[in-house]
Automatic annotation (TrEMBL):
UniProtKB keywords: ATP-binding, Cell membrane, Membrane, Nucleotide-binding, Repeat, Translocase, Transport
Lineage of producing organism: Bacteria, Bacillati, Bacillota, Bacilli, Bacillales
One Pfam family from the record: ABC_tran
Principal cellular location given in the protein's record: membrane
GO molecular function: ATP binding; ATP hydrolysis activity
Protein's UniProt keywords contain Membrane: yes
Protein name according to UniProt: ABC transporter ATP-binding protein
Nucleotide-binding listed as a keyword: yes
GO cellular component terms, semicolon-separated: plasma membrane
Topological category with respect to the lipid bilayer: Peripheral membrane protein
Length: 517
């Protein structure tokens, strides 16, 4: 046994039916370090951490905490051993306050009266402030931003005494600013002697924060290395098993006619707040238009309006020469608008159904897919198999529920359905969120191929690197308006960041010039 490891997993195997998720994996992390566990979607990294946190049990192998063999049969066992996990999909009760979520599960926690809760709120505030994780403790969780909800999850693990903290894809739902704030917190945890384990595939973030890096591929542990001894290119090669082409700017081409015209659009959000305010934009054939902005500035509502999911109060939308009068999902599909939503498993795919049914969602009414109201079962299965093969979707069978696929394969299936519908406009919202470097490269290729075929792409993303890499034009949204526009060649992170912060309004031009200069 090597000295100094807070956690060690030896010869771990985990199998789900015929699928081997972890194949004799060894993993170890020290106290007082940030350890990144990397790998493509489906590499087995999340399964490893779920066994460490008690969600799954290994079929074989041994787990040691401070060199002592332990049995972790449940999350409760894990917490007793000082292990806490913050999942990618938060496990909070929306109607309870942040403090109530954190003390939830304590004996008689809601029978001890307001004085007890007030003391707990003060204790939670103290922990949050110590690690730079402030949030309103007495506000219902549903009213908090995504970043604040993640802080609640992290403070919950700290409140319960975790010394080993696991974060599963922690920045996939955060803005760049929130991600930077999170990394400051993780460094502080490290300085307090805690073990921080990140499961991720974002190379830049790993190189900026991790002390050591372990790489998994196809259920096996490939390599563990100090950050100082590697680089992004080497990590990408280890993850995918081959050289990954360096990112390069998509080549611009002559754009065609205006396909989408939005003028003076006013849209209200779910709670009556004005989400889009006098918004104007155009998207031409043969171009990718990237929209950058901090979450909550109207991007979600814009995507919903363009896909027929939300109505508007004022303004006009003209698509392919025809004015859109009312919100209708079916009309927008038939008009030629494709949609890759922000949350593929919430509003893009039906997790309990297989590939065939998910691929049919937008075309089951067509003559190719049905006859006299009855689906062409045999032909549809052959069609589904051809799409799965064409888009390289890895699945045991076309009837396997898509919720059992990796995130990258779910996204490829979603793109297969949308592109097969031969759209004129693709509205892609965070299309690579939660995807590894290989899957991201594939999604970017699909978007540029659409553009090169004369189609239009509206890319809404909080990943500035993605926006800068793909876009022929960049628009920046702030407070429901387009506040900045620049060509892809002219755009840079600093300028976009200023627009995103609202610092290029008329009253702020002088300040912006001083900061930029």
């Amino acid at each position: 046994m090597r000295e100094g490891y807070a956690i060690e997993m030896r010869d771990i195997c985990k199998q789900f039916g015929p699928v081997i998720a972890n194949d004799h994996v060894d993993f170890a992390a020290r106290a007082g370090e940030i350890h990144a566990l990397m790998g493509e979607n489906g590499a087995g990294k999340s399964t490893m951490m779920c066994m460490l946190s008690g969600v799954y049990r290994p079929n074989s192998g041994e787990i040691r905490i401070d060199n002592v063999p332990v049995k972790i049969r449940s999350p409760k066992d894990a917490m007793k051993l000082g292990i806490g996990m913050v999942f990618q999909n938060f496990r909070l009760v929306p109607t309870l306050t942040a403090a109530e979520n954190i003390v939830l599960g304590e004996k008689s926690s809601f029978l001890r009266g307001p004085k007890w809760m007030k003391n707990k709120q003060a204790e939670i505030k103290g922990i949050a402030e110590k690690f730079g994780l402030t949030f309103p403790v007495d506000v219902p969780v549903w009213q908090l931003s995504v970043g604040e909800q993640q802080r609640v999850e992290i403070v919950k693990t700290l409140y319960r005494g975790a010394g080993i903290i696991i974060l599963d894809e922690p920045t996939s739902v955060l803005t760049p600013g929130e991600a930077d704030q999170l990394f400051d917190t993780l460094r502080q945890m490290k300085n307090e002697g805690k073990t921080v384990i990140l499961t991720t595939h974002k190379l830049k973030e790993v190189m900026a924060t991790a002390d050591r890096i372990s790489v998994m591929r196809k259920g096996r542990m490939i390599h563990t290395i100090d950050r100082s001894e590697t680089n992004e290119r080497e990590l990408a090669r280890l993850m995918v098993g081959k050289e990954v082409a360096p990112e390069r700017k998509a080549s611009a081409r002559t754009r065609g006619r205006p396909l989408l015209k939005v003028e003076a659009l006013e849209v209200h959000a779910d709670h009556g707040r004005k989400a889009l305010d006098d918004l104007e934009l155009q998207v031409h054939e043969g171009e990718i238009v990237g929209i950058a902005g901090v979450a909550g500035n109207g991007q979600k509502e814009l995507a919903e309006v363009l896909n027929g999911l939300r109505s508007w109060k004022k303004g006009s939308i003209v698509f392919n020469g025809q004015e859109i009068k009312t919100a209708s999902v079916r009309h927008m599909i038939e008009a030629g608008v494709a949609h890759v939503p922000e949350n593929r498993m919430k509003s893009g795919l039906a997790g309990g159904l297989g590939a065939v049914d998910n691929l049919l969602f937008k075309s089951y009414r067509t003559d190719k897919r049905s006859r006299f109201g009855f689906l062409r079962t045999s032909g549809n299965r052959d069609w589904s198999k051809s799409l799965v093969e064409k888009f390289d979707v890895k699945t045991p069978d076309i009837d396997t529920p898509v919720q059992q696929m990796s995130g990258g394969n779910q996204q490829k299936l979603l793109f297969a359905r949308e592109i097969d519908h031969d759209p004129l406009l693709m509205v892609a919202v965070h299309p690579t969120q939660g995807l590894d470097v290989g899957a991201t490269e594939g999604v970017h290729r699909l978007l540029t191929e659409l553009r090169d075929a004369g189609r239009a792409v509206l890319l809404l993303s909080e990943d500035l690197d993605e926006v800068l890499q793909l876009s022929d034009r960049v628009l920046v949204m702030y407070n429901g308006r387009i506040v900045g526009e620049m060509s892809g060649d002219e755009a840079d992170r600093e300028t976009i960041g200023m627009y995103m912060a609202g610092m290029y309004g008329h009253e702020d031009e002088k300040l912006a010039e001083e900061v930029a200069g």
